[in-house]
Amino acid sequence: MLKPGKASKELLAQMENQIAMGTLENITEENLAQFTGTEAYHRWWVPAFVLTDGARYLAANGAAWLIDAIASYLRKYQDNYMTVVTLTTKDSKGVLEGIGDEEKVVFRQEIPYTDFPLPEVKLFVAPVDERTFVICLMSEY
To answer: For the domain with range 27-136, which CATH number is right: 3.40.50.300, 2.50.20.10, 3.10.450.150, 3.30.420.60?
Structure first.
């Protein structure tokens, strides 16, 4: 189960203030490391998905496309109980890959251009109930 959240109040306030106009510059290893659980689930626009505080922070700071990509792939492959999703970037290119049960590659997408600021970010997707999946940072699980 997800751990209770410990992100700083400043980060959460920043997330609320920037949800419509966040900037990728806020996505740093240091900021993401503060998310060690979640205070709440945040409904995403794609039905059946909710975000933790950390995943919502990514979306609020310019990486909503990443959450959308994960949700769009996993809507097709919901038979996978849990999925680890990794975005790896190098030289403004990326690879988005989902690994499901038994280390099976669920999806893989080459991204010809990305300005995502980190060389890698990992997210975890798991069911909350029969119809809802949660997307969270690995540090929040």
So the answer is: 3.10.450.150
